[in-house]
Amino acid sequence: MLRITDARTGDPVDAVPARRGLTRVEAHVPGYDTSALRVLLVADLLVRALEIGGTPVWALLTGEREQAELHAGAAALGIRPFEDRRDVGPGWGESQVVHVVAEGGAAPDGIRVAVAPVGTPDLPEGADPAEVRLALLTPPRNTPAQLDEAALAEAHGTLGRWRRAVADWARHPSRPVPDKVRGRLRTAWEDDLDVPEVLRVLRWVEESDLPEGARFETYAYADRLLGLELTRDLGSPA
């Protein structure tokens, strides 16, 4: 069961109510900048985690301005589309609402997931969107993120290495994700969306002696949450 920390109280709460039904995830941003994109990215992770657990989700964006820029920036980072809040009415069958906001940002009453800002207000020119996504995923969401040269270089190296490894592992017979590894991954993202722990599990798998096919399936499974296109290079020359 996915549990997240309610920024209003500091207490963990169930993201899915006992009476399972539609959960609305609403991202609140005042306008377009990298901090707003990080809010949308965390909302995207929440949507993905809920869907993996079988919960139907309705994703909404509440923005005061620069809606087109927000949607375009989100799409570039692999964030799935959010509907504009002003264009829709109440959700039918809605049983839970989770608001994703910037730290200190205003939101209606209800469960709030707070996201720390990004130190760089603008996306670096020419930066690979997947590398930006990984750089924003790496620190805990309550820690300010950076999109400086060092952070992007680290993301570039990690993403390239993992994609090459996944393409190589895919040439071996498939094996199921080991139960222990699947459990570690699910425990991580169901514990307050602990994405840094998910990344640590993947680093452990990378260096482990698990069969190549099991490592491939593990990375493909985790990428349902991470959205880093880790299987992109399948079929590329060895």
From TrEMBL:
Q: What molecular function does GO assign, one term? A: aminoacyl-tRNA ligase activity
Name of this chain's protein: Cysteinyl-tRNA synthetase
What is the species of this protein?
Answer: Streptomyces pseudovenezuelae
Sorted alphabetically, the keyword list is: Aminoacyl-tRNA synthetase, Ligase
